[in-house]
């Protein structure tokens, strides 16, 4: 193959392969829109490089304009996708100003005051500015993980490439007065190499991030109960054990509440399993709402649930359980007749022990609540010197 043709097709080939790879990812993860934006970015890059070597019938000037529009689209789309991937708000204003400003300057030095050197400065400095915007956005998340740190560094290197390399290469080559010789210059050679290297490194980092997203989603799915939307037993035990350890290391108390819906089999037998599922979902929603963001809530199986309350003592856990018991029994559930009510029983334990020990203590208290009439809250132990006055509906084991 002719060397010039190989060079002409190298970057478009790399860009099209990367675009195809991101397209495959997006087809299987349609909810991740940043993947579709990456497809657009790398496709535009391929078109931009092809137009550098294969002009359109519209003329050289318009071909160069379209080529550099593609490069600018690549820069802005890539920036927006990277920023969006990490949950940051895409800085549309900054990207728009840099993109429009760069293309305006490019058009001025293409049509009004033709100057190839200043066109190169205009397009490179605009994309370099976009790279700095990305680095500024990633600075806040660069310590969150390896891909964040790598992409932050790559954004800075990209900015250096578009600013420093451009200036040095143009100083060495001298100002360009015409397109002749551009593709054989040091500036163009370093542009091709830098683009190929940065494109691959950024793409590999984003592929890694996408793979981590998939693994995280699979882990969340394996730890989530599909009916209630809460953690399943495995997920609850893992999350609760980790939180208990953090609380213990910080010297903070923790409390565990186990809840069980009363006579739930009768609900299924009388009203059907669809209504029973609605009751499960309603009770799960109540627990999640009352526990807040700090609590760990899980469905242990069937109609049994657990809530770990960090930074909570036994009294606080009692109040939590009693509040859920009262509001749920009085609130009714969708699908049930107006006068029908489903109640729940609760067992509460607190201490600095491991999760299995807390689960046993809370389960014993729950058994006492079931045996003594249900629709009540029982605690596994109390300190006599700190005996509280029991509110209505609360009995002590």
From TrEMBL:
CDD domains (alphabetical): GGDEF
Membrane-spanning ranges: 6-26, 33-53, 65-83, 90-112, 118-138, 150-172, 192-212
Entry protein name: diguanylate cyclase
Keyword Membrane on entry: yes
Entry EC no(s): 2.7.7.65
PANTHER family xref list: DIGUANYLATE CYCLASE DGCM-RELATED, REGULATORY COMPONENTS OF SENSORY TRANSDUCTION SYSTEM
PROSITE patterns: GGDEF
Key words of the record: Membrane, Transmembrane, Transmembrane helix
Domain (GGDEF): residue spans on this chain: 252-382
């Amino acid at each position: 193959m002719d060397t010039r043709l190989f060079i002409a097709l190298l970057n478009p080939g790399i860009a099209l392969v990367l675009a195809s790879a991101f397209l495959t990812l997006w087809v299987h993860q349609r909810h991740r829109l940043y993947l579709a934006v990456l497809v657009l970015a790398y496709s535009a890059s391929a078109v931009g490089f092809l137009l550098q070597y294969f002009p359109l019938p519209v003329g050289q000037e318009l071909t160069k304009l379209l080529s550099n529009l593609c490069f600018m689209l690549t820069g802005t789309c890539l920036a927006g996708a990277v920023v969006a991937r990490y949950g940051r708000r895409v800085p549309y204003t900054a990207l728009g100003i840099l993109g429009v400003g760069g293309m305006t300057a490019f058009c001025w030095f293409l049509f009004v005051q033709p100057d190839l050197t200043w066109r190169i400065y205009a397009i490179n400095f605009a994309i370099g500015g976009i790279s700095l915007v990305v680095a500024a956005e990633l600075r806040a998340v660069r310590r969150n993980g390896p891909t964040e740190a790598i992409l932050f560094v790559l954004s800075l290197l990209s900015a250096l490439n578009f600013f420093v390399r451009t200036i040095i290469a143009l100083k060495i080559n001298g100002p360009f007065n015409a397109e002749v010789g551009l593709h054989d210059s040091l500036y163009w050679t370093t542009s091709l190499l830098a683009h190929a290297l940065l494109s691959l490194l950024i793409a590999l980092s984003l592929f890694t991030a996408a793979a981590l997203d998939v693994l995280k989603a699979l882990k969340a799915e394996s730890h989530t109960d599909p009916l209630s939307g809460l953690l399943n037993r495995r997920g609850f035990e893992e999350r609760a054990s980790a939180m208990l350890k953090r609380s213990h290391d910080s010297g903070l108390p923790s409390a565990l509440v186990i809840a069980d819906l009363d006579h739930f089999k009768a609900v299924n037998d009388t009203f059907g399993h669809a209504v029973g599922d609605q009751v499960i979902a309603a009770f799960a929603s109540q627990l999640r709402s009352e526990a807040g963001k700090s609590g760990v809530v899980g469905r242990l199986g069937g109609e049994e649930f657990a809530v770990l309350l960090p930074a909570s003592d036994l009294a606080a856990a009692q109040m939590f359980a009693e509040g859920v018991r009262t509001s749920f029994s009085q609130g009714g559930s969708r699908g049930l007749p107006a006068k029908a009510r489903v109640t729940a029983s609760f067992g509460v334990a607190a201490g600095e022990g491991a999760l299995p020990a807390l689960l046993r203590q809370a389960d014993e208290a729950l058994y006492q609540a079931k045996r003594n009439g249900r629709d009540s809250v029982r605690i596994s132990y109390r300190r006599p010197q700190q005996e509280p006055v029991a509110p209505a509906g609360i009995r002590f084991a």
